[in-house]
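Quarterly update, task 2.4: NDP-bound model.
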Amino acid sequence: MAHATFTSEGQNMESFRLLSGHKIPAVGLGTWRSGSQAAHAVVTAIVEGGYRHIDTAWEYGDQREVGQGIKRAMHAGLERRDLFVTSKLWCTELSPERVRPALQNTLKELQLEYLDLYLIHWPIRLREGASKPPKAGDVLDFDMEGVWREMENLSKDSLVRNIGVCNFTVTKLNKLLGFAELIPAVCQMEMHPGWRNDRILEFCKKNEIHVTAYSPLGSQEGGRDLIHDQTVDRIAKKLNKTPGQILVKWGLQRGTSVIPKSLNPERIKENIKVFDWVIPEQDFQALNSITDQKRVIDGEDLFVNKTEGPFRSVADLWDHED
Ligand code: NDP
Ligand code: 1BO
C-alpha cells in the first residue's frame, strides 16, 4: 500500500510500507554502471531531486563512491534515518560463513552503520574468479537455507533493517518461504512495460512481499529502448510528461517501488517528478498491452554454460517459468 510523505522541498513523495513496518521510498536512484560518477549522481538525487532511496550492490564496484555521495548529502543537512539505502550480497558470497563478512565490507565501503535493505543479488552461487560465461565447476551448490539464516541473523543484530531477494522465481520463493523465519521484505525484479513479469508480481502481492522494479526504463546499453517506444511516446506527449516519467509512473501504479538509474542531473530530477499526476486507466492498459515481452537481464552471460550445466539455458535459470 502506498503512503504519501513530503521531502524537505515539500514535494509529495510516496513510500510503500514493508512487512517489517519500515517504509521504502517509492522512487530510488539506481547506480549500476555509475562508476566514478556515482557520488555526484547520489548528491544530485538526494539534495536537488529529493530522493531518499539509493540502490547499490557490491558487484557494481561503486559502493565507495555511493558512500561518499551519501556523506556529502548528510553534510548538507540530511539525517541517516531519512535515507533508505539498499545493497546486495554477490553470488561469490552465497555460503553461510561469507554472508556477515560481505555485509561488513559493504558497510565499510559505504561508510554506514547499517543498511535499510540487504538483498541476495541472484539465487546462484559462483566460485570466486568464475569466468563469464561460467566454465565447468564455476557454478556451485547454493545452501539457500543456511545463507538465509545468516541474513536473518544480520537483521536480528540490527546491521540491516530488512532482508530480501532479487531475481528469484516463484519456485525459489516458495522454497524460501518454506523455511524462512523472516519473510523477505522485498523482491527486486526486472519490470517495465517490455517485461511486465506479472507472475512474480502477483505471487509477491499474495504473500505481502513488496516488489521493487529494476531496469524500469528498459536498462542501459543492449537494453530495450522503451524511451522511443511508440505507445510510451504517445502517452508521454498526451500527458505532457517525458517517456522516462511515464515508465516510472507505470511501475508505481502497479504498486512497485522503482529505481531508475541516471547520471544526468536533469534526468535524475525528472525521473522523480511523478507524484502529483496519474496515468489514466486507458493509457495504463495500453502500456500493459505492449507486445514482445522479453527479459533484458536474463543472466545468460553470468550463469549459463550450454554444455556443462547446471544451467544449460536461460530457461533453466528461471525454472522454466517464463
Ligand atoms: P534503467 O532502466 O534505470 O535505465 C537507465 C538508462 O536510461 C541509462 O542509460 C540512462 O542514461 C537512461 N535514462 C535515465 N533516465 C532517463 C530519462 N528520463 N530519459 C531517457 N533516458 C534516461 O537501467 P538499469 O538497468 O540501470 O536499472 C536501474 C537500476 O536497477 C540499476 O542501476 C540497479 O541499481 C538496479 N538493477 C538491479 C538488478 C538486480 O539484479 N537486482 C539488475 C539491474 C538493475 P543516463 O545515465 O545518461 O541518464
Ligand atoms: C549482474 C548485475 C546486474 C545488475 O544488478
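Highlight for this quarter: The longest helix spans residues 96-110.
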